[in-house]
Design a protein that fits this description.
This protein is α/β, with parallel strands linked by helices. It contains 2 helices and 8 strands.
Amino acid sequence: MVSDTPRYQWDHIHLRSPDPDATAAWFEQMLGAEVIRSTQQGKPRIDLRLGGADIFILAVGPNDKVNPAPVTPHQGLDHFGLAVGNIDAVAASLKAMGVEFTREPTTIRPGVRVCFLRGPQGISIELLDRDPKYV
């Protein structure tokens, strides 16, 4: 029997930035993202690969009518999460590089520790450390 239910898979995350080079550099330096430079429709484009996901960065020009980043928490897409091991060491390393944290590493339930950091343009990023014995 063939199902009519569509199958959904992640394809990409799309960011808007007034400085795509700086945004890409931040994700590369702080989170180890792979920066991919290409040309699309005759214009330079910067994409990232992070944790198996593609992140596209669209340049925002001075005459583009784009709203500023909202203050978190807010309705709609609030943040994206990245799985890590040894969250306390990861957080300490990121702090040493100057990353701003909006929530320190915290145990939210047995076997799960999280923290939140602020990326470029106010992007909220959650780091999660899940102990496999609780999954």
